[in-house]
Amino acid sequence: MSNKMEGIPLVSYREKWEEGKLDYGVGIIGVGNVANWAHLPTYEIAGLNVVAAADINEKALEVAKNRWGIKKVFKDYRNLLALKEVDIVDVTVHQKWDDIRVQITKDAAEAGKHILMHKPMARTYERAKEIVEAAKQKNVKFLALLRGIIKNKNQT
User: pLDDT tens digits for the chain (156 residues)?
Assistant: First the structure.
């Protein structure tokens, strides 16, 4: 484990029974707050290979490079999507840029990348449906990360 998580007790989440491909290349689009306190630490703990990051904020890219050791960083997410070594794209762009998030996700599907998207998927059902249809058409897996939406069992 690198010194990125220094002082934090870590537990390996990879059990011995796991088999199959575990060395996917992850590209993360949007490396702001949620990426730094949730997604990137989780990838570090799990031993996943984050190969590239994209963000319009140069300071965020600098943190991605220096703190997390991500070697390939881009201001234009399409450069990340063009990388052969990126198998999975994690979209953590803030929800206030809904149109951009939806377009990024559709472009990722078009590029043949599997997609993890931080909640919410989209502002409307119609926009969410566009994302699902794009993933289906290109036969890529899509997961909207909804952790924390349901706070207790009475909210289901």
Answer: 454 556 555 555 555 545 666 688 999 999 988 888 888 988 888 788 999 999 999 999 999 899 999 999 999 999 999 999 999 999 998 777 778 989 999 999 999 999 998 877 888 899 889 999 999 999 999 998 765 544 544 443
Q: 10 CB contacts (<8 Å, ≥6 apart)?
A: 1, 45
Give whole-number Cα distances, 139 to 4, 80, 133, 146, in Å.
Answer: 35, 20, 10, 22
Q: Which strands sit side by side in the sheet containing 114-118, from one edge to the other?
A: 72-74, 49-54, 25-29, 88-91, 114-118, 142-145
0.70 surpassed by pTM: yes
28's tokens: 């993360």
